Amino acid sequence: MNLLSNSYFVLFLIIAIGFIIGRIKIKGISLDVSAVIFVALVFGHYGYQIPKDFQYLGLVLFIFTIGIQAGPSFFESFKQNGRQLALLATVLIISAGVLTFCVYYFGGIDKSLTIGLLNGSLTSTPGLAAAIDTTGSPMASIGYGIGYPFGVIGVILFVSLMPKFIRVKVAEEEKKYNAEIALEHPEILRKYYVVENENVIGKSLGELNIRFMTKAVISRVMHKNTVIAPSKGLVLRKGDIIKAVGTSDALERVNILVGPESDEAIPSDKNYEVRSVLVTNKDVVKKTLGQLNILNTYNATVTRIRRSGINISPTPASKLQFGDKLVVVCNQGNMKNVSRIFGDDDRKLSSTDFFPIAAGILLGILVGKLSISFGSFTFSLGLTGGILLVGLILGRTGKTGPIMWTMTGAANQLLRQFGLLFFLAAVGTSAGSSLMTTFNEYGMELFGYGIIITLFPMILATIVGRYFMKMNLLTLLGTLTGSMTSTPGLAAVDNMVDTDAPAVAYATVYPIAMVLLIIVVQILSLL
């Protein structure tokens, strides 16, 4: 029993048991890492508590890494479908607010208690802060305590079971999402063409500016069985064979500009090297290929950029990111110099600089404490919102001077899991300690209202998002968890898929949902 009095021992015991239970599958469904919170609820009920410091430590790590990961995609996503996601979040929050008003008006429940119940059911701590501030009543905290346990559990269960209920396979939706991404980043192909167009014969590659005209890259030229590395001064002759790399549309333009496709491939040359090079040199991050000018300096050509599992056709305006994998073509004698420019040190991909992480979290905490006043209405992002916003901005920025804000996928995943486990264990024991007390004191009625406020808005948003907006399931799940401001819910979804679609949707709607909920709280308190 002495061991169970040690909070560190209890913390890792909860995590270990949670992992064992999370791997159990029943009809293909498992709780995965989310099982930790259910184990923690049981421990909390029996009086075992994890200090709040672990909850906040886990929360800041989890939210910051989500922001860093989603940052590069977030702003682009908001431009593309931000209005659609914001509309769905509005449907969910407004419907929850209407239900809360009905509970207060028709159920005869104390207004402050129902406002607290709303925030607990939507697991919104910033909303609770607004409720306490506007009502000035301790009943808001009690309502929050009643709604919160199912608010946490209900979202996890809903997002885990919803694909089964609507008979949609997550794997198929993931394929559809990846196919949509592929349309934005078409497959990179390579083909050979014979120079036969009279308009290009006798002209140099610099004069033709093929990359600008076609968006394809010439990676190799063969003249009378002699393989030549492309350069601006290289003059094309009739019958030359060129190797072009680019999208299907780009290669079609090469066909029109240069000549017909050829079955004759350009053989390898011992003095000519094609190699994958990693971008690990911080000095070239955020610089364009045109600024590096490796073609003129080393007669080297980048024919492909692989980033986050996607092949991108390079242009002189392509900005490099840390961890990009480049396919470089050049003379063997120059390859070492070209590799040195980009870094090409895979050891740097496995190392993590903790200064940007600490500095980013500190900035997020400070931003979260800032408040904006509009007369009697005061708004602040709070701890979660501040860190998420800063993480998104830093993830999008990538680099400031010598500081690299981004991190490798492996490092991000490790820190995220580490933070998530601490957060779930602490939240679970905290909620578990009051679960039976609140039930005995207020009975099933308020719990029932809390369950309705948690589930009905998600069901309504699912119907609107899936059947009217035709939203991809992964984006829908991320939108639901973001609208419910549910970090554990996002964790459950995050472990179901291998893409960042849910995290991007979550990060897009979370700030919107938080602001909307605070406004709804203000309106309800005035009714």
Description:
With 527 residues, the protein is an alpha+beta fold. It contains 19 helices and 12 strands. The strands form 4 sheets. A 4-stranded antiparallel β-sheet has the order 1-4-2-3. Strands 5-8-6-7 form a 4-stranded antiparallel β-sheet. A two-stranded antiparallel ribbon has the order 9-10. A hairpin with a 2-residue loop joins strand 11 and strand 12. The two termini are 52 Å apart. The mean pLDDT is 80. It is found in: Cell membrane. Residues 176-260, 261-344 form the RCK C-terminal domain.
How is the topology of this model organized?
Layout: H1 7-22, H2 35-45, H3 52-107, H4 111-121, H5 125-135, H6 139-165, H7 170-184, E1 189-194, H8 205-208, H9 210-214, E2 217-223, E3 226-228, E4 241-246, H10 248-257, E5 272-278, H11 289-292, H12 294-298, E6 301-307, E7 310-312, E8 325-331, H13 332-342, H14 354-369, E9 371-374, E10 377-380, H15 382-397, E11 399-400, E12 403-404, H16 409-468, H17 473-483, H18 487-494, H19 501-526
Antiparallel strand pairs: 1-4, 2-3, 2-4, 5-8, 6-7, 6-8, 9-10, 11-12
Helix pairs in contact: 1-2, 2-16, 3-4, 3-15, 3-16, 3-17, 3-19, 4-5, 4-6, 4-16, 4-19, 5-19, 6-16, 6-18, 14-15, 15-19, 17-18, 17-19
Family: Belongs to the AAE transporter (TC 2.A.81) family.
Keywords: Cell membrane, Membrane, Transmembrane, Transmembrane helix, Transport
Main location: membrane
